[in-house]
Amino acid sequence: MPKTYTNPEYAYVRPRDLDAGGEVHYPVVVVGAGPSGLVAAIDLAVQGVPSVLLDDNNTVSVGSRAIGFAKRTLEILDRLGCAQPMLDKGVTWKVGKVFFQDRMVYEFDMLPEAGHRMPAFVNLQQYYFEEYLVNRAQELSDLIDLRWKNKVVAVESRPNRTHLTVQTPDGEYRLSCDYLLVADGANSGIRSMLGLESKGQVFNDRFLIVDVVMKAEFPTERWFWFDPPFHPNQSVLLHRQPDNVWRIDFQLGADADPEEEKKEENIRRRVQAMLGPDVEFDIEWASVYTFRCRKMDSYIHNRVFFIGDAAHQVSPFGGRGANGAIQSVENLVWKLVRVIKGKAPYELLATYDTERQHGAAENILNSTRATDFITPKNRITRVFRDSVLELAEKYPFARALVNSGRLSVPCDYAGVSPLISEDSDGFEAGLKPGFCASDAPIEIDGQPAWLLNQLGNDFRLLVDARVDEAGASALAVELTKALSEHEDLALVLVGPAPAALRALPRTRVIDDVEGLVAERYELKPGSAYLFRPDQHVTARWRRFAASDIAAARSRALGFQLIQNQEVANVCA
Questions:
Q1: 71-79 and 320-340 helices cross at what angle (nearest 10)?
Q2: Mean pLDDT of the chain
Q3: Are 466 and 533 contacting, i.e. CB atoms less than 8 angstroms apart?
Q4: pTM score, two decimals?
């Protein structure tokens, strides 16, 4: 099988800890230099926290694997300085089409509105993604100690510290850390060493995944077939990737023989039947897989935190695996940074489990429903599915029932998280507390920019500063107090802003050139939104005082968790 990509091999370097003469301690150790581990180390470094990143291999993944990176994931990666290479290399798309037998029944648009920097999706082979992350980690090498061919072979988890034994080509050494982030994959060795498990459903249906190199006339869209003539009684998914590589997923059924299906002559027969006899192609990579929808009951064990596939797995339908994992990593890291720096109580870390259990449950629910629709288990469910598809061609109500994989969208924490303030009166639309920020085009000093690039890494207060002089004076009093009390708070003012507000420290004035900031946030003069470091809304107000900001920030940092516990202890 010809290859369009050659995996880079990264140099093993003898760890200095081999010569330390005893156990060496670090604040943070990350295990697994796949997407989740690399993103965790990069995010920590961007926020000034060093880490040691261990990986038992010395290259990126083999095969394209995860390929669909959603808008929210790209926004997170943009904050980390990793998105631009993906945009430059990847294939951008937003339209999907659903086919039943020999006809298209409907199409959908994942981002119908304009005014967003990031596209709905970028298709990019996982090996490119990992390579770009390694490049970024190397740029941050002062804060990321990336160690290839360093395998964790033993782990001891204690309430306040974790001890590791690491095997290298030059022998073993011992590490300890305050916080261990585990990103060693779905079959996590560390999870097994600690006697923990991931629970859920294992699906028996088998699928053939093939990367085909060809020059084709297919548009850059997501195409999904139910019961197509070239692959009857099963389903097929087609995606385009860079380098003229096309991803094709063939549903095979539970009784398929994996070894037979992986033979090149059998793969060629299936692909040729789909593409037609005259289309030339090369097979770059193929695999037969089953999948699991499962998660750990808790992602936290003492000071050990599980992230990515080590914590939760979903089916590939909808692209929720890597996208959900990166949201989870961001959720943990901003909290961990503040605990390490003494700006938040340790109790804040428990909300990583609260919020991301919710995120994983949402992803698993959507993935399970998609699998049930794609692979009906009996005659009744097959009749239901096919009837829905027949109706979807003419009736919009039926299209909502079609499930070829509900594609990844941002998870919100409204009504779930103890860190989110109750919504204030006066808003009929906009973004509720718990939702992630929505982008919009802006200008700063006459230069084009984007709203999301003004948010992140610290708390940001977005204020509609289009007020008169009297309103500006009142706002300036409250904002001056808030800025003096909270060094991690900065202002983003929607202008034009009066001089009294423009003169405030840590302040940036933006011009809402297309009116989309005001529209998407339902802004009025004096309105404000407070964003967490992960760009989620934690509170919003039509009118506010410095005390409101202080209370919302305190809640977002977990201090209310301590107060609630103190009250509970008194009541007990």
A1: 30
A2: 93
A3: no
A4: 0.95
